[in-house]
Write a structure and sequence with these properties.
- By secondary structure, the chain is α+β, with helices and mostly antiparallel strands.
- Helix content is 27%, strand content 25%.
- Strands 10, 11, 13, 14, 15, 16, 17, 18, 19 and 20 form a 10-stranded mixed beta sheet that branches. A 5-stranded mixed beta sheet has the order 3-7-6-5-4, covered by helices on one side. Strands 24-23-26-27 form a 4-stranded antiparallel beta sheet, with no helix packed on it.
- The chain is flat.
């Protein structure tokens, strides 16, 4: 009787298919590892903190493949032609994958689904689980493990910070839908199917809520998700709490020593004594950083051959870069900060010693002082200065410079004396001039720069008294960086000057304008009327200030025009400040604008706050008083209530009202919803 074994052959084919599927899944994971880790990082709960999120994202992806004997289903190799399409949630193909209907695409989709499920599990708690504790998945030990260091992606700007905060206010399913649409390119239906496969309770609701994130600039939100802020594969390192670690090590050492003494183990006692002696040494944890020979130095032409044009591309300049005694004193002052050293910091800047040898930017003599500039490789510029003669003490200045670029990393203050300052310019600055913002029609004057990159003295804006001049630097980048690129920076009392930009008035039917350099005639005229308002920003760690001309209004009784500006100052640490200014008719191009609203810690007038409404009282030439209001380009109607009632279609509004009338203003937006006036 013949023996038929069709089932056995089927098992062999299935086993081979499983093995092939696992190999393809392994290949997909390795090939698209950075993409999968970024997806996991966005989906994981922000409450974990950036360090734990980075490690958890890598752990989630590294555990995506099933271990032998785990019972998890293996990925199946799809047929060579699949009429019904790819498995749910596997389209579109990632970069480098031909199509999700093929084996590579199906394997990637299978791995992606497992990553998604694992990341979402970090936010799911059983009903009996205490609400204040992390979900059980977040407590599982996992590789990789890092001791003694904190890992975090490179910090982005204020827009990236605002997006991260917005993601922290929604649940994991919404973050997953948002990431699947903007990172993976899935449509609504594909995202819903994949979320359903990942056991999300309400996939459609998650997709609807995700659609509201990042509006109206979804393309900008997509670019930010793909930036270094959300890239857990490109990270910076910092030490963990060194003092706490030292205390813990000391406590463990003392306990171990007591046990050793009680046991009478003389050898161990000697080891404990040696360890205690090392602990008493001066700042032993930072010993390598105190050696001038360990300082990092960048080659002179590195800036022209790198895509990272920031302080890491600055070469070491100055006449005393080889003075180890001066460099050693600067490093020791930074590491120990003795009481004789005056210390100043911009808001949000820490003064802890560097965790690794810093980069030397400058060491030389300027205005009677020996000055050293360091960059810690991450977020800080440090300036050390000691007098060349006399009894004055040394000084240390700390400032944040997160993610500096061609403009915000173009200059650093090396010396301030009286009413002037000197700057060290970036190596990519090809031309430097000075100009006065309160003289918009006067061309810039050439600024002399020494061979070490230090400028001649530049007048500083007056901190008090009459505001009759506002000096700025007008710099031009080398054509090796970008062609015909001139920009303005101004000294606001910090080590790094602030970058000034301008956003023009909205055009009829034109898309929203973007900030541009404030070197054109229109920009200079706007800054001539608002420059003196920069005084209120002095010493607050401002990175950049933008003047946005969000509306123009015809005034009652004669038809003269007035302008509305939103002046937004972004700080290095993230939060921004907004001044809304009314530019009424003026006899002089430098008549100061009227500040009608002042708001701290707001997203207004940024990428995540593109709608604004403001109002003010205005007196006509006839002596009559009016309430004026104006909104940005999406405002379709403005209404007034309170002491005066009225309404007008469009982005501007004017109504007769007593001088001190208390009026509430609201606007209707083109896409729906209402907007209150900023105060």
């Amino acid at each position: 009787m013949p023996i038929h074994q069709p089932q056995q052959r089927t098992d062999v084919r299935t086993d081979r298919s499983d093995r092939t599927g696992v190999r393809q899944a392994e290949a997909a994971l390795v090939e698209h590892y950075p993409r999968l880790v970024r997806l996991a990082y966005v989906v994981l709960p922000p409450a974990l903190g950036r360090h734990r999120r980075v490690l958890a994202a890598h752990a989630v992806v590294q555990r995506a493949l099933p271990t032998s004997g785990s019972g998890a289903p293996s990925p199946r190799v799809p047929a060579q032609s699949r009429r019904s399409g790819a498995p749910a949630g596997t389209a579109p193909a990632p970069e480098g994958v031909a199509a999700d209907t093929g084996p590579a695409g199906a394997a990637y989709g299978w791995v992606r689904l497992r990553v998604l499920r694992a990341a979402l599990a970090h936010e799911r708690r059983p009903r009996w689980w205490p609400g204040r504790l992390p979900a059980p998945a977040a407590l599982r030990p996992a590789v990789p493990v890092v001791w003694g260091l904190r890992l975090f992606p490179r910090a982005g700007g204020v827009d990236e910070l605002a997006l991260d905060r917005a993601l922290s206010t929604v649940d994991g399913a919404v973050r997953a839908a948002f990431a699947l649409q903007l990172l993976e390119g899935l449509g609504d239906s594909g995202a819903r199917e994949l979320l359903a496969d990942a056991a999300v309770a309400d996939p459609a609701g998650a997709v609807r809520r995700a659609a509201r994130l990042g509006k109206p600039d979804r393309a900008g939100a997509q670019a930010m998700l793909r930036s270094g802020e959300f890239d857990p594969c490109t990270v910076q390192t910092r030490p963990s709490d060194l003092l706490r670690r030292r205390h813990r090590v000391r406590a463990v050492a003392v306990a171990a020593t007591l046990c050793v003494v009680a046991g009478g183990l003389a050898v161990a006692v000697q080891e404990g004594t040696r360890g205690a002696g090392e602990d008493r040494g001066p700042v032993g944890a930072f010993a390598p950083v105190l050696d001038p020979a360990e300082l990092m130095r960048t080659a002179a032409e590195r800036w022209a051959d790198t895509s990272r044009v920031d302080f890491t591309a600055w070469p070491a300049r100055g006449g005393r870069t080889g003075d180890d005694e001066l460099l050693g004193r600067a490093l020791r002052a930074w590491s120990t900060t003795p009481g004789t050293v005056r210390v100043s910091t911009t808001p949000g800047t820490v003064t802890v010693p560097a965790a690794q040898p810093p980069r030397l930017l400058f060491a030389g003599e300027v205005d009677g002082a020996a000055v050293v500039l360091f960059h810690d490789g991450g977020v800080r510029i440090v300036r050390y200065a000691e007098p060349l003669s006399g009894s004055g003490g040394a000084a240390l200045d700390f400032a944040r410079t997160d993610d500096a670029d061609v403009t915000t990393g173009a200059a650093v203050v090396v010396s301030r004396t009286g009413d002037s300052a000197r700057f060290l310019l970036a190596p990519w600055i090809a031309e430097s001039t000075t100009r006065d913002l309160l003289a918009p029609n006067t061309p810039g004057r050439p600024l002399e720069v020494g061979p070490d990159g230090v400028t001649a003295s530049v007048p500083r804006p007056a901190a008090g008294g009459a505001c009759d001049a506002w000096p700025v630097l007008q710099l031009r980048s080398s054509e090796r960086i970008v062609e015909k690129h001139a920009f303005l920076v101004t000294d606001l009392g910090d080590l790094a000057p602030a970058h000034l930009t301008y956003t023009p008035k909205p055009g009829r039917g034109a898309p929203a304008r973007q900030p541009r350099e404030a070197t054109g005639t229109e920009a200079l005229l706007a800054w001539a009327r608002t420059a003196c308002s920069l005084r209120t920003l002095s010493g607050s760690g401002v990175r950049a200030v933008n003047n946005w001309a969000f509306a123009e209004q015809k005034l009652p009784e004669g038809g003269a025009s007035a302008g509305w500006l939103c002046t937004r100052a972004d700080t290095w640490r993230g939060p921004g400040r907004v001044l809304v200014q009314f530019l009424g008719p003026a006899a002089s191009p430098t008549d100061p604008a009227a500040v009608v609203a002042d708001r701290d810690d707001t997203a207004l007038c940024s990428r995540f706050g593109q709608h604004v409404l403001a109002g003010t009282h205005w007196k006509a030439a006839s002596g009559r008083w009016y309430v004026l209001a104006a909104g940005s380009r999406a405002v379709t109607r403005i209404e007034a209530s309170g002491a005066v009632r009225g309404a007008a279609g469009g982005p501007t509004f004017a109504v007769r009202a007593p001088r001190d009338a208390d009026v509430e203003l609201t606007a209707s937006l083109r896409e729906g919803g209402t907007l209150p006036a900023v105060r």
